Amino acid sequence: MNKGKVDALLGIVFGDEGKGKVVDVFTPKYDIVARFAGGPNAGHTIIFEGKKFVLRSIPSGIFSPDKINIIGNGCVIAPDLFMAEAQELETAGYDLRSRLHISKRAHLILPTHRVLDRAYEAAKGKNKVGTTGKGIGPTYSEKASRTGLRVGDILENFDEKYQSLKARHEEILRHMGYTDYDISAEEQQWLRGVEYMRTFTLSDTEIEINRALAEGKSVLAEGAQGTMLDIDHGTYPYVSSSNTVCGGVCTGLGVSPQSIGEVFGIFKAYSTRVGAGPFPVELFDETGDRIREIGHEYGAVTGRNRRCGWVDLVALRYAIMINGVTQLVMMKSDVLDTFPVIRVCVAYEKDGVRTSDMPFDTASWQAVYEDLPGWQTDLTGLTSEDQFPKAFSDYVAYLEKALNTPITILSVGPDRAQTIMR
Ligand code: IMP
């Protein structure tokens, strides 16, 4: 943690790296925890005081009593889902009103954005992105089209602005021939969500964050999704719609590049992906099924099976470069405890050509592996590095060397005690 700096905690592959488990290692050190991109497509599963919460839009600092939590301008927010998420936390006794600030510049996801998300996906036929259906893409498109509604809009003449945008969406849907939908119940709940949001601190969060930094306070930028789902650097078009990389922290919170301190890159000891799109390390065999089963790799938002494979050094090196990762956090190491051989994707190959750089289109490339011996030892009871079986120490050292970045936090089990700091 650096005073007067923004540290970033970023998923550096396809999201779902398990940030939720380590946030409580991170959040107590910071004064402010801020989300800078994405919306309710995220699902950070956090177990706090024995109760499980799935945070979609609200930063994870909400569980620590003295932290300010910010939903930044780079985020998109659905009032109805926000209300459901916030009320669950309020019911569980967490005080949100004084500690959760929402940027007036964040964009609103309308019920009709969700219909448009479904309609665009349906129109794509076999090229579906496999979105979470939360209206993320249409909302960011609207932002780029300069026709969107922002959180600050709910403070004045909102009904007029809402009706006008909704009518525009209905017109688009009519043109697409996508008319079989009914949002009336959803819309009522959404409008209640808008009322509810009005009772929160809606502010110029970029000014608030910069003032806090000038006072020497520390900020944790909590990423969502992952680098390979970034709109610019991910596996386009099979990506989300925002900049999930470290550059997105600057634009999504309104902080300068000079204010960035440490960049923590989270990855799993293996790879997963939800939704469609290229995934060269994907395993279609029993090993993939075993990783899914042992690692409980099912989507937190949609419940879909996650596609599973071995760790991908091509993707990780690329992500470390794009984000300027200074420290790595490796999650779910214990999921590989029973495998006799651990494979590592070291390069991609196509037509006899090998590359270790991320290609423009990974779809036509195949993974090239190196095999390492498995540790075949239960890691879940380990509490310090000197207890590591040799094969596991070797795996960690191999990754650090190949990635030229230290792995400073290792997770060896689902419980927060099963986290080893190095
Ligand atoms: P969208 O963000 O809902 O538009 O979905 C675009 C793609 O990103 C789909 O493949 C989703 O499955 C994926 N995606 C979006 N959010 C997450 C996340 O938090 N974790 C993992 N995948 C995600």
Descriptive report:
It is a single chain. By secondary structure, the chain is of the alpha/beta class. Helices cover 31% and strands 22% of the residues. The protein is built from 11 helices and 19 strands. The chain has helices spanning 19-26, 79-91, 111-123, 136-145, 158-176, 184-197, 205-214, 247-253, 286-295, 313-323, 390-403; strands at 6-11, 32-35, 44-48, 51-55, 68-71, 76-77, 100-103, 107-108, 201-203, 219-222, 260-268, 270-273, 307-312, 327-331, 341-350, 353-355, 366-373, 407-411, 419-421. Strands 9-7-5-2-10-1-11-14-18-19 form a 10-stranded mixed beta sheet, sandwiched between helices. Strands 12, 13, 15, 16 and 17 form a 5-stranded mixed beta sheet that branches. Strand 3 and strand 4 form a beta hairpin. The longest helix is centred in the middle third of the chain and has 19 residues, at 158-176. It is globular, with a radius of gyration of 21 Å. It starts with 5 loop residues before the first strand and ends with a strand. The mean pLDDT is 96. The structure holds inosinic acid.
Topology, element by element:
Elements: E1 6-11, H1 19-26, E2 32-35, E3 44-48, E4 51-55, E5 68-71, E6 76-77, H2 79-91, E7 100-103, E8 107-108, H3 111-123, H4 136-145, H5 158-176, H6 184-197, E9 201-203, H7 205-214, E10 219-222, H8 247-253, E11 260-268, E12 270-273, H9 286-295, E13 307-312, H10 313-323, E14 327-331, E15 341-350, E16 353-355, E17 366-373, H11 390-403, E18 407-411, E19 419-421
Parallel strand pairs: 1-10, 1-11, 2-5, 2-10, 5-7, 6-8, 7-9, 11-14, 13-15, 14-18
Antiparallel strand pairs: 3-4, 12-13, 15-16, 15-17, 18-19
Helix pairs in contact: 2-6, 3-4, 3-5
This protein binds inosinic acid.
